[in-house]
Each structure stands twice: as C-alpha cells, then as structure tokens.
Input
Amino acid sequence: MSAKGTPATTAADLAGISYTVHEFQHHPGVDSFGLEAANALGCEPARVHKTLVAVIDGPRGHGLVVAVLPVDDHLDLKALARALGGKRAEMATPADAERATGYVVGGISPLGQRKRLPTVVNASAVDHATIFVSGGRRGLELELQATDLVSVTGGLFAAIAAIARPN
Output
C-alpha cells in the first residue's frame, strides 16, 4: 500500500490538516516499533508517539480507547481511565486492537481507524512543534501538530504517560 493510500493519510487529507510522510525500512523482529522509528527518523524518542489500545471500565460501561504517548514512556492505565471518566483500564488484546482499528500492531495509527475510538494524547505532545505518529503501517510515520491530531480524532490532552526509568 502506498503512503498516500493509507486510511490514516486519507483521514488527514479529508480533515485538511498539514502533515509530512516519512518512510523507513522496517526490520522484522525488532523489539520496539517506536524506538525503531525514532532511530530511523533521527529524532528524539519524545517526539515519536506510539498508539496503544486499552479497555476502560467505567460508569458508561466497557469500551476500547486509544492512548497516544511518547515511545520511550509507559502508559499510566489509571491516568488514562481517569481522563475518560473511567474507573480502571487494561491493555486490549492485540486481536481486539487490530479488529477495532483496522491496522496491525506496530502500525496502528490514531488516524483513520475502522471504528473511531475515544482518544487521549499525552499532554507533553504540545511541547513539540510537531510529533510523529504511525501512518498506518510499519515503517510509515506522519509528522504533524499535536493540536491537529486531537482535532481530527476528537480527542483530548491529558497526562497519561509514566516516564520510563532505567533499571
């Protein structure tokens, strides 16, 4: 699939937001798709954001949600649940994430998902002029403004990242 033909780029085009496509050679067997992208793009990991799918249990029932945060941070599930008015959260299974978004793990984009899910972008994203998110497949990143990402997804900003600490 060409870069301009992914559901993510189509969604960005339809929304009229500005973005830049960055492609790199994905290497099978890598442990971290996000850190691979940061290295390939030659930028700090804080600007490259991963897209995770979780399940929230709250007053409105159960539901899948999307969390977007820097690749070198960990998701704070309690903070994610609080941001969306839930009581608790847990990671969705890879199969559920792929089925709901229409993307494969390692290439899940917050844009152009099969089913629009509530989206929370980590508050630190606004510290950068632009951030990178998956363009809908491994080895494809979209560079855009965090405010545009929130606008297109109907999401919100919240502190949902727990900074990764070395062991």
Remarks:
- The chain has a mean pLDDT of 88.
- The first strand starts at residue 20 and ends at 23.
- The chain is about 25% helix and 30% strand.
